[in-house]
Amino acid sequence: MSVRQALLALLEQGPMYGYQLRSEFEQRTGGTWPLNVGQVYTTLTRLERDGLVAGAGADDEGHVVYRLTEDGHGEVATWFTTPVARTQPPRDELAIKLALAVTVPGVDVGRVIQQQRTATMKALQDYTRLKRSERGAERVDLAWGLVLDSLVFAAEAEIRWLDHCESRLRRAAREQSAAPASAPVQEEAR
Amino acid sequence: MSAVLTLDRVSRVHGEGASAVEALKSVTFTAAAGELVAVMGPSGSGKSTLLTLAGGLDSPTSGTVTVEGADLGSLGLKDRARMRRTAIGYVFQDFNLIPALTAAENVALPLELDGQRPRAARAAARLALDEVGIGHLADRFPDDMSGGQAQRVAIARAVVGERRLILADEPTGALDTETGEDILQLLRARCDAGAAGVLVTHEARHAAWADRVVFLRDGVVVDESGSAPVDALLDAGQGR
Lengths: 190, 240
What we know:
Chain B: GO terms for molecular function: ATP binding; ATP hydrolysis activity; transmembrane transporter activity. Chain B: Keywords: ATP-binding, Nucleotide-binding, Transport. Chain B: It comes from Nocardioides lianchengensis. Chain B: This is Putative ABC transport system ATP-binding protein. Chain B: Pfam families: ABC_tran. In chain A, helix 2 crosses helix 3 and helix 6 (109-136) runs antiparallel to helix 7. Chain A is mostly helical and 190 residues long. The termini of chain A are far apart. A three-stranded antiparallel beta sheet of chain A has the order 1-3-2. Chain A folds into two domains: 3-81, Arc Repressor Mutant, subunit A (Orthogonal Bundle), CATH 1.10.10.10; 93-189. Helices cover 67% and strands 7% of the residues of chain A. The longest helix of chain A has 37 residues, at 142-178. Chain A contains eight helices and three strands; from the N terminus they run H-E-H-H-E-E-H-H-H-H-H. Chain B is α/β, with parallel strands linked by helices and 240 residues long. Chain B has one domain (35-57, 76-236): 3-Layer(aba) Sandwich (Rossmann fold). Helix content of chain B is 35%, strand content 27%. Chain B has helices spanning 47-54, 77-86, 103-113, 118-131, 147-159, 177-192, 204-207, 230-236; strands at residues 3-14, 21-32, 36-40, 62-67, 70-71, 88-91, 165-169, 196-201, 212-217, 220-225. A six-stranded mixed beta sheet of chain B has the order 6-7-8-3-9-10, sandwiched between helices. Chain B has a four-stranded antiparallel beta sheet with strand order 2-1-4-5, covered by helices on one side. In chain B, helix 3 packs parallel to helix 5. The longest helix of chain B has 16 residues, at 177-192. The termini of chain B are close together. At the A-B interface, helix 6 and helix 7 of A face helix 7, strand 9 and strand 10 of B.
């Protein structure tokens, strides 16, 4: 996740100081990707160095406030009009784990899948519970609601993929146990 | 905690001899008052068989199915039909409403079949329709409704007359994402109000609305996720 782009986009709303930027970010994402204030200030310093933001003095309490420069506005526009690249998928520990589980001897792959499915289902239940409380709230926060939906759909996709892995493994196991006898002949006969 | 539905070592075999298929293999399963349980599994896993047995639409080859303390297997046909009208509500993917009857008439039907006077039955039906948010559509026919509205009518029909076991078979299957969630919200609310619900689905996103998720594979329960918070809930307040 690009902290840089997120901070620039938030500054489209108007000048803000570091702590404010952090709370604006977390309001929208519900603390799903926590930002520490140090990270925010380091990023702001770099953005200032690159000419995308500029200091806009201090507020009454002495917080240094930042605003977007002309280049900064351009950068935000570019970000919103460019799709997020999917060419380099992030490293997926679960996919790697299963790829190794089916090749390394002595691993009960079925067990690995079942345990993961139960854990992912629990997470999905938690997200859904959060959604339900959101629905009950007087003012539904659209931004946070969408982030929550994204987590829900991702967890659902993971469970579907685990189901798929399970049925592929079962089929592979069946074919293997049938193979020595008559299976290849039957295949040809069809 | 009171179990509204109990399946005790239930097996169901379809067919005989070499072609016999064991759809459920000694499955033990409960749904308590105030609890929504989801049953997930691929096609052929036995999830629909489980639901038809729970609803008394089919009988187990062995084992017992108990609803509100009554062993469905020991009931005669007549008593079992009565249970289906008074204790068990069924919600289907394709709504199963009667097209020649209005929404209110569809909902009142189980009550009238059970011998209630038409006026009392209609009044109860209108109340049930109000509860699912479509009281204003009481006089409309199913064909003049959207899928989401029709499924709300079906839910009203499933709960009318204080039925405490709701069985739902892919109730959101024909609906778009948001309408589907409204339906789950309704099921959830009924369970929070004290009914026991069983939701059969192949979509994890929908199963996640349940307190517990049971995974079936080839007629056997392989996994179960989610704690049973029902005990704690009941202890905290209602003292059922």
